[in-house]
Amino acid sequence: MATTVSETKDSGEANSKWLDAHYDPVANLYTFASCIALADLHGDGENKLVVGDLGTGASNMKLKVYKGTSLVSENMLLDLPTGLVSFLMDQHEPRTPAIAVASGPFIYIYKNLRPYFKFTLPSLEVNPLEQEVWTQAKEDMIDPTSLKEMLEGIRETAEIPLSVRSLKFLMLERQAMENFVSIHKQQPIRRQTVITCISTLKKNMAEEDAVSCLVIGTESGDMYVLDPEAFTILSKMSLPSVPTLMDVTGQFDVEFRITVACRNGNIYVLRRDSSRPRYCIELTSHPVGLVRIGKNVVVGTADETLLGYTQKGKKLWMVNLPAPVVTMATMDHHTRGFQAVLVGLANCQVQLYRDKNLVSTIKTPDVVTSICFGRYGREDGTLIMTTKGGGLIVKILKRTAVFDDRDTVPGPPLAQSVRLNVPKKTKLYVDQTLRERENGVAMHRAFQMDLIRLRLTAARAYAKALECSLTPMSASLTEPLKMNAVVQGLGPTFKLTLYIQNTAACKPAMGLAVCFLYDQTLYSMKTTFFKIPLLVPGLNYPFETFVECLSDRGISDIIKVFILREGISTPLLTAHINMPVSEGLALS
């Protein structure tokens, strides 16, 4: 019950930061975070939502554009989109961005929502043995059965993979092979790769409206940087595995970093003038989401964890998530200077993390498949989400919303994760360290000897205190008593109150007396000895007396209090009362 109340409270606090602008559960939008973007398509200062809709996966793929809550444009796509970005191709007025849709081996460029250009990836090198085998089949030197056996042998031993034609041929049944060979043997062999991810890179300026290059990752493990005007390849880089997620920062003509998550579970960092990765981050599980916050990289993995790394691959922190990660996005609110990570989870939650701290949680009616934060229409802080069932959710960040840096999840305080300002090693520190290394055994023995002596001294003092009853609590099992004293007044006359308690379970204490011992040149008491009546167990008995200070020199001393029992010479317990300095003058 307590957990339910806590979750409801957290959800209410999150919803208080967001306005529910729009929710359409039957929008029929089936997409991912890589196929959604916000762009000012007409240069009127009003951003539109551009979505690459996957349709059914085999048909009905469309490029959709939303304005506000309504669908304003649709364009049919020939194949499944793998990525979608908006970018500026040139400096011509009006400054309207183009839309690049990656699909198969092609990039379709749309300008003013009309088809403008199609870029095709360069063909890959064909295996010469495969080329020779198909040439023999073309000249009818081998039959389809021999062709299949030779292609299978090439596939197992060759370093260069087979083309799509050969792979399709190897999948056919025996009766369909001859027809396939007769149709394709006259056509040249081509080995074509496909695009797996796409992003943009500023060309020579860091401004938001600067010209950007296209950065694409391919199934062959290559990265290409394309010129935005001529669509020629400016740079080519190679990776050890197939790229799946990508984040790009910097300018192509100055310096840039491309952080790529690959299918082998590693993250690689590519830099300018380097055809190979400079750094490698080895993960314990496959990456599901990758975003950059400042100079740090945040990765969501398949084992329900969120990890933070530096640009050079040093691990900073790790957070365990309550459910698997479905999608991730950056929340960059420029006007507030606020940056955080939005994480869509499989339990119908979107969690907002700033560094390792969970600052907000948004409940959704369905599992979120894509997230996009930015300027939509004329509103800067807009959060757009699509759901697994094809729904569209639009939320607007309130202008009064404040996100605390503290973690909303119970755990260790923030100060525990703050790095200490450790001073640099001085010469004295180094000398002491060397001395400790050389004389470690002798120093340890000396420390142990001093520690044993300290324990022995403390044990002797404690035994003496018990033996002489010098403690405010009685050590006797037959007469368990406890006493404390209170001194009141400024002087020269003080009121001394003793509180005596019998801590026995049921046995009353009888035949007790109180005696005071003090310096008679400093203090005077009318009663230095009096008997105590019967003490009932559990009650606190106050006994009052007055002490007069005889000195005007501003000094003080202690007064010893003893609780005695008739017939026993050793006191049951003793208390030393530190008297305050008298602020008045003693009357003669």
From TrEMBL:
Keyword Cell membrane (UniProt): yes
Location in or out of the cell: Cell projection, Cilium membrane; Cytoplasm, Cytoskeleton, Microtubule organizing center, Centrosome, Centriolar satellite
Lineage top rank: taxon: Eukaryota
Alphabetized InterPro entries for the sequence: BBS1, BBS1_N, GAE_BBS1, Quinoprotein_ADH-like_sf, WD40/YVTN_repeat-like_dom_sf
Keyword presence, Transport: yes
Gene3D superfamilies: YVTN repeat-like/Quinoprotein amine dehydrogenase (2.130.10.10)
Any GO molecular function: smoothened binding
Residue ranges constituting the Bardet-Biedl syndrome 1 protein GAE domain according to the UniProt record: 481-583
Stretches assigned to the Bardet-Biedl syndrome 1 N-terminal domain: 18-271
GO cellular-component term (any): centriolar satellite
Record GO biological process: non-motile cilium assembly; protein localization to cilium; protein transport; retina homeostasis; sensory perception of smell; visual perception
Record's keyword terms, sorted: Acetylation, Cell membrane, Cell projection, Cilium, Cilium biogenesis/degradation, Cytoplasm, Cytoskeleton, Membrane, Olfaction, Protein transport, Sensory transduction, Transport, Vision
Chief place of localization: membrane
Quaternary context: Part of BBSome complex, that contains BBS1, BBS2, BBS4, BBS5, BBS7, BBS8/TTC8, BBS9 and BBIP10. Interacts with the C-terminus of RAB3IP. Interacts with CCDC28B and ALDOB. Interacts with PKD1.
Descriptive protein name: BBSome complex member BBS1
